[in-house]
Every structure is written in structure tokens, then in C-alpha cells.
């Protein structure tokens, strides 16, 4: 896919940032000396870590050049590196390895967890949050509307993301941690319109479908998704729409 659009992503910064705040608040580490925020995006989640642990040595990494450039522009006093978590040097150790809404983009969570745990210092923690996007009606709407335009295409949500539930992470990795905390939250976003929902997901879950769509049909896909959202989510008299967003949180203590 083409690189990310940080400015589009940040249009809904408050909604995207709250899960980072909630995850960081429930990590029971007093004074981690070294923290890695992998998949840091434009640096907004990293500021949550800085606020929680102001004296820690924090490194933000991301695969996207555009996201790292935006992080450097917005927070020049902090450390940023463009890095691929699947191939980076795992000999460096961190007291906390943190990730907000990233690992669903990476296939092979078994190998990925091996790397993350291997990068964590003794008595440290691995903490991540992932959207349960595959269980949300909006994901089905997008997939169905794309395949109306391209009925022969094998492209699907499972071509883009790897999703698992809490039982997978506990079953596969609880013996690798001395303690695990797992929980789910449904964030009920108050959106001003159906268009706001489309704009919010245009830079994330909708983005890969748009890139698979011919330029002349992209507006049609967006219009068709909007029409189906009108049938899926209730609009109130003030024009606003409640948009539940499911997220899974995992903290494992090494």
C-alpha cells in the first residue's frame, strides 16, 4: 500500500488516543527506564507514555516514513526511528514494549509475540491494544460493497488484517508471562454524521479497499458504503450517529 496520511489520521485524534491512555493507565510498572512504542504513528500515543513516565528513555518507531516525519515535526525533542518490527534488532531490551492499534496489520502473531517478548527485560511488560474491527458491522459493509464492484476479487478483510480474540492470546502465550491482564472495551463514539464515520475509517480499515479500487470508482465505493451505513447505524434527531468501536487490550508481565 501507499504510505499513510498522518493529517487524515489525526482528524480523529481524541477518539484514537483514548485507548492508549486506558492501556497505559493499567500497566503496573512503577518506573520503567526504557520504553519502546512500536507503530508509534504520528507520535500521539508516545506522548501518553511520556506523560505517564516522564523520566523514561522512550523510543517511538514506525514502518511509515510519513508517520515518522510527522512525529519528528510535532515532537522534535523526542527520539523517533523508522523501523520494521518484524525485522528489527531484538537484542535491544526494553522495560516496556507498547503498541496501540498496530499488530492487526502484521501477519504471524506467534512469531511477532516471540520477538516482542524477546525484546522485553526481566520484570518488564508487553502491552498492546488492537481493534476488534472484524466483528464490527462497518467492516462487513465495506467488504460487501467492494465485492459488488469487484465480484471476482478474492481480496477481503483477511487479506489485510490478522485478528484474534482474548482466548487466543491467553491460550498461546500465558505460559510465557508470569501474569496476564486482558480486557475489552466498546467505545461509543458520537459521530456528527455518517460522513464522519467514513472519514474516520478512510485512513485505516477502508484504506486498503480504496487502494484496490480503480480511481474512477473510488467515489462510488465511498457513496455506497455511506448508503449502507445509513441502514446499519441509527441516526438521532440531532443528526448524530453512535458508532461503537470494539477494542481488545492485553498486558503480559515477563
Commentary on this structure:
This protein has 254 residues and is of the alpha/beta class. The chain has one domain: 3-Layer(aba) Sandwich (Rossmann fold), CATH 3.40.50.150. 41% of the residues lie in helices and 24% in strands. The chain has a seven-stranded mixed beta sheet with strand order 3-2-1-4-5-7-6. Strand 1 (34-38), helix 3 and strand 2 (57-62) form a beta-alpha-beta unit. The chain is globular and about 50 Å long. The relative contact order is 0.16. The mean pLDDT is 96.
Q: What's this entry about, in short?
A:
41% of the residues lie in helices and 24% in strands. The protein is of the alpha/beta class and 254 residues long. The chain has one domain: Vaccinia Virus protein VP39 (Rossmann fold, 3-Layer(aba) Sandwich), CATH 3.40.50.
Q: Main attributes?
A:
alpha/beta, 254 residues, Rossmann fold, 7 strands, 7-stranded mixed sheet
Topology of this protein?
Blueprint: H1 6-9, H2 13-25, E1 34-38, H3 44-52, E2 57-62, H4 65-74, E3 79-82, E4 94-100, H5 109-118, E5 120-131, H6 137-149, H7 157-160, H8 166-173, E6 179-191, H9 194-202, H10 207-211, H11 215-232, E7 241-253
Helix pairs in contact: 2-3, 6-11
Low-confidence stretches: none
Net shape: globular
Number of domains: 1
What value does the Rg take, in angstroms?
19 Å
Instruction: Output the CATH class name.
Output: Alpha Beta
The CATH topology is given as: Rossmann fold
User: Helical proportion?
Assistant: 40-55%
CATH superfamily grouping: Vaccinia Virus protein VP39
CATH architectural group: 3-Layer(aba) Sandwich
How do the strands line up in the largest sheet?
3-2-1-4-5-7-6
Order of helices and strands: HHEHEHEEHEHHHEHHHE
The largest pleated sheet is described as:
7 strands, mixed
**Average pLDDT level:** 96
Question: What amount of the residues lies in strands?
Answer: 15-25%
Amino acid at each position: 500500500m501507499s504510505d499513510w496520511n498522518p493529517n487524515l489520521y489525526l482528524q480523529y485524534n481524541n477518539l484514537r488516543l483514548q485507548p492508549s491512555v486506558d492501556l497505559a493507565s493499567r500497566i503496573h510498572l512503577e518506573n520503567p527506564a526504557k520504553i519502546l512504542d512500536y507503530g508509534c504513528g504520528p507520535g500521539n500515543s508516545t506522548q501518553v507514555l511520556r506523560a505517564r513516565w516522564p523520566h523514561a528513555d522512550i523510543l517511538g518507531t514506525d514502518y511509515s516514513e510519513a508517520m515518522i516525519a510527522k512525529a519528528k515535526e510535532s515532537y522534535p525533542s523526542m527520539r523517533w526511528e523508522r523501523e520494521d518490527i518484524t525485522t528489527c534488532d531484538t537484542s535491544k531490551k526494553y522495560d516496556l514494549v507498547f503498541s496501540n492499534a498496530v499488530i492487526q496489520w502484521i501477519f504471524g502473531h506467534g512469531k511477532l509475540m516471540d520477538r516482542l517478548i524477546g525484546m522485553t527485560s526481566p520484570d518488564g511488560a508487553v502491552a498492546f491494544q488492537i481493534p476488534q474491527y472484524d466483528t464490527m458491522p462497518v467492516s462487513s459493509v465495506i467488504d460487501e460493497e467492494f465485492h459488488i464492484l469487484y465480484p471476482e476479487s478474492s481480496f477481503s478483510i483477511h487479506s489485510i488484517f490478522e485478528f484474534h480474540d482474548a482466548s487466543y492470546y491467553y491460550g498461546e502465550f500465558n505460559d510465557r508471562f508470569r501474569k496476564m491482564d486482558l480486557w475489552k472495551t466498546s467505545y461509543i463514539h458520537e459521530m456528527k454524521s455518517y460522513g464522519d464515520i467514513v472519514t474516520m475509517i478512510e485512513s485505516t480499515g477502508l484504506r486498503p479497499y480504496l487502494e484496490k479500487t480503480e480511481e474512477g470508482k473510488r467515489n462510488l465505493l465511498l457513496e455506497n458504503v455511506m448508503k449502507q451505513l445509513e441502514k446499519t447505524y441509527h441516526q438521532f434527531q440531532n443528526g448524530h450517529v453512535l458508532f461503537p468501536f470494539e477494542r481488545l487490550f492485553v498486558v503480559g508481565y515477563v
